[in-house]
Amino acid sequence: MLEITTQKLKESEERVSMLLEQQKIDRDNFMKRMLELEMSTKKKVEEMQTMLDDKLEEQQYLESINSSLTVKHFESNSELQNARRQLLKGLNDKLGARTKIGIRRMGAIDVKAFQSVCRERYSNDDADIKAAMLCSEWEKHLRNPNWHPFKVVKVNDKEVEILRQDDEKLVFLKEEWGEVIYKTVTNALLELNEYNSSGRYVVPELWNFKEDKKASLSEVIDYLLQKWRTSKWRRT
């Protein structure tokens, strides 16, 4: 009986020892896997950090380029505007409305339109006087910054200003004096709003009269070179 008990005790001890050994093996394997996982995670974190650093450097580089280009664009645009001003100042007595490239007064009312309409209603002498008075009256309206017959609308997700068709002054002008004078006044009004909405005074602009558009600096320079080559200005 004692031998049986001793044998069972021995077997139990062996099983416990085996369990302990297996637990040790399992624990070692677990620790090994955890260490491998930690190393793998650390490596991935380092790789991600490297990628982020590269992206940050790339972003900073692109931002630096963009900032530089913005400054250069501003400087270039400022230089172009200054060049236009110098050309306007220097060529004021050489360019007019009869040359291909000339100077147009943006926001100025065409008095000929008033004369044409008035001559249909009055005698020649009275027509010119009436046209001058009417033109002067509307020039005062145009110079008045408190009169702003525009409304803001969205076009292609962009806010733009357009004329109000229900403005009392413009409605009266069209009904009383017709389409020709109405168009002359509204064209001048649109130009003033574009070129000098706050000051409301006429602004000179280099103009391509042949194509009826604002002249680029290259167009002006090409035109001046052609004039110089033909020696038309050398004697002036």
From TrEMBL:
Chain ranges of the Factor of DNA methylation 1-5/IDN2 domain: 104-232
GO biological process: gene silencing by siRNA-directed DNA methylation
InterPro entries in the record: FDM1-5/IDN2 (IPR045177), FDM1-5/IDN2_XH (IPR005379)
Pfam families tied to this protein: XH
Official protein name in the record: Factor of DNA methylation 1-5/IDN2 domain-containing protein
Taxon lineage: Eukaryota, Viridiplantae, Streptophyta, Embryophyta, Tracheophyta
